[in-house]
Design a protein that fits this description.
Elements lengths: L1 E5 L8 H9 L2 E5 L5 H7 L5 E4 L6 H5 L6 E4 L9 H7 L2 E3 L6 H16 L2 H9 L6 H4 L9 E5 L3 H10 L5 E5 L13 E3 L3 H7 L2 E4 L13 H6 L5 E4 L8 H9 L5 E4 L19 E3 L8 H19 L17
Parallel strand pairs: 1-2, 1-3, 3-4, 4-5, 6-7, 6-9, 7-8, 9-10, 10-11, 11-12
Helix pairs in contact: 1-12, 5-8
């Protein structure tokens, strides 16, 4: 019998994975690993590993001598050392398409709420006020508002598709974008990130976190943005230098931010962003619907079953030259 190990998860239960894996003859073992030593021990007898937030380093993987495949719950996989896994012959996969609609919906909800200043209006009424102009200004009509979408993969495209009926001017920046693709979404292609930042009233991030994209939005980038602009991030927390963002928000160099993801999660109680009054938080919830969570758990387990049947993985993120199977 093969062993499938879940190193960590914060789901209410892991029944969807168990159903898929046990039906295929796997023994499923659930852990709640917090340290590298706990991870090493949890995976020593594992043939396959499911991981959510745990940091899977080369040192950890060296202890997993039987492990053939690691599947990361979700789209991002920056908590797994991909190059080390490839060197060790371990296949790594993610689950990239379980929540495309949910993230796009959540992004648009944050954009619309930010532009219409729903949170400031709500809080002003709670304070006993009844003010429109005092809270609203500046507030452009949607027809005179420019949305800048950074990264034009599936989620970025879905965001554009949802926003188009509102009449926004939409710009996109993605150095890997095929010529002309943006026109099908009613968007304008920008040749540089700097130009997009200067012209946008809203900047929405839809990029993977890699060494070259870490702190893409740093102090210098924030200085390029309009003083009333809104920054929206439902992608990866490390794309934004959150300390620099907090300074920009407190100094009113940036109008507003709407954030679903953070460099450190949960957001620390003493983080300077918490003291800003011009930011809207959600707790890494953009992926969520009852249906998407079930898809995520099942699809992650199905990738393991596929691998041990000798089939090619549906969503590989590396290509080991000498895989262990």
């Amino acid at each position: 019998m093969k062993n499938a190990v879940i190193t960590d998860s914060n789901y209410l239960n892991n029944d969807p994975e168990r159903s898929v894996l046990e039906s295929a003859g796997f023994r499923v073992v659930l852990h709640n690993c917090k340290t590298a030593e706990e991870l090493k021990e949890a995976g020593r007898e594992a043939d396959a590993v499911l991981v959510q937030f745990a940091q899977i380093t080369e040192d950890v993987m060296k202890a997993w001598e039987r492990c053939q495949i690691i599947v990361r719950y979700g789209i991002g996989y920056d908590n797994v050392d991909i190059r080390a896994a490839e060197k060790l012959g371990i296949q790594v996969c993610n689950v990239p398409d379980y929540c495309m609609d949910e993230v796009a919906d959540h992004t648009c909800a944050l954009i619309l709420a930010s532009l219409r200043k729903l949170l400031p209006f709500h809080e002003s009424i709670r304070r006993g006020e009844w003010s429109v102009e005092g809270i609203a200004r500046p507030m452009k009509s949607f027809a005179n508002t420019t949305i800048g979408v950074v990264g034009f993969g599936r989620i970025g495209r879905n965001v554009c598709r949802r926003l188009a009926p509102f009449g926004f001017r939409i710009m996109v920046y993605d150095p890997y974008l095929k010529p002309g693709m943006e026109s099908a979404f009613g968007a304008v292609r920008m040749e540089s990130l700097e130009d997009l930042l200067r012209e946008s009233d809203v900047v929405s991030l839809h990029l993977p976190l890699m060494p070259e994209t870490r702190h893409l939005i740093d102090e210098q980038a924030l200085r390029l943005m309009k003083p009333h602009a809104v920054l929206v991030n439902t992608s990866r927390g490390g794309l934004v230098d959150t300390a620099a963002l907090a300074r920009a928000l407190r100094g009113k160099a940036l109008g507003f931010a709407a954030l679903d993801v953070f460099e450190e999660e949960p957001l620390p109680p003493d983080h300077p962003l918490r003291s800003c009054d011009n930011v809207l938080f959600t707790p890494h919830a953009a992926f969520y619907s009852d249906e998407s969570l079930l898809r995520l758990q099942r699809q992650a387990a199905e990738e393991i079953v596929r691998w041990f049947r000798g089939e090619p993985p549906a969503s590989p993120v590396n290509h080991p030259p000498n895989p262990r199977r």
